[in-house]
Automatic annotation (TrEMBL):
<dbReference type="InterPro" id="IPR011650">
    <property type="entry name" value="Peptidase_M20_dimer"/>
</dbReference>
<keyword id="KW-0378">Hydrolase</keyword>
<dbReference type="InterPro" id="IPR002933">
    <property type="entry name" value="Peptidase_M20"/>
</dbReference>
<dbReference type="Pfam" id="PF01546">
    <property type="entry name" value="Peptidase_M20"/>
</dbReference>
<dbReference type="Pfam" id="PF07687">
    <property type="entry name" value="M20_dimer"/>
</dbReference>
<dbReference type="GO" id="GO:0046872">
    <property type="term" value="F:metal ion binding"/>
</dbReference>
<protein>
    <recommendedName>
        <fullName>Peptidase M20 dimerisation domain-containing protein</fullName>
    </recommendedName>
</protein>
<keyword id="KW-0479">Metal-binding</keyword>
<feature type="domain" description="Peptidase M20 dimerisation">
    <location>
        <begin position="64"/>
        <end position="175"/>
    </location>
</feature>
<dbReference type="InterPro" id="IPR050072">
    <property type="entry name" value="Peptidase_M20A"/>
</dbReference>
<dbReference type="GO" id="GO:0016787">
    <property type="term" value="F:hydrolase activity"/>
</dbReference>
<dbReference type="InterPro" id="IPR036264">
    <property type="entry name" value="Bact_exopeptidase_dim_dom"/>
</dbReference>
Amino acid sequence: AGVVAMVYAFKALQHLGLQPASEVQFHTVIEEECTGNGALDIIQRGYRADACIIPEPLPFIMTAQVGVVWLHIETTGKPAHVWDTSAGINAIEGSMKLYEAMKALVETWNAPEVRHPMYTGMSHPININLGRIEGGEWGSTVPSRCTMIVRVGFFPDEKVANVQSKLEDFIHTTSKEIGITCQVSYGGFVADGCKLDPDSELVRSLAAAYQNAHVDVEGVPVHPA
């Protein structure tokens, strides 16, 4: 939707006989949600601009973006035959207990007293997601292994390394309490957050353009939520 919107917006300006005052670049990138390699490739190829607009289909201008860490958590339990499950340690059940504890940790990051000021109006800006889980050997054995891929967000002022350290310490302590062994690695999307001055020329220009267009189309000005 965003790609179509930006292309047709540019074509509409051309149709009106307007030309940009400087070069306009259009970039469509791959792996936006999983690595960021598409955007990285653009930078490595030497493309630069005074401003960048990412046309997400949102009803407002977003001036901050959370950071993201993808974790691969390898859990080891203790296998046992189903006739004596108490002799084993279920790696899948242990992984689920660990994930529930991680969800509780992330809830503390959403607390109003520690929330980033640019996210005060959002009910739940920091989220954790268990995107994939795989484990076990077969139905009649207490599973000895389990793998989770988990995505965790964090506020713009924090750095990836600091968040990774917090998560690793938490996972290490919690897994010992549960009775499982965990190894943490990283793959996929790992990036710091970012923020843009709401009073910057780019934001003010975009806001004014949207306000004017809304009046022309709807006949009324935009009212802040």
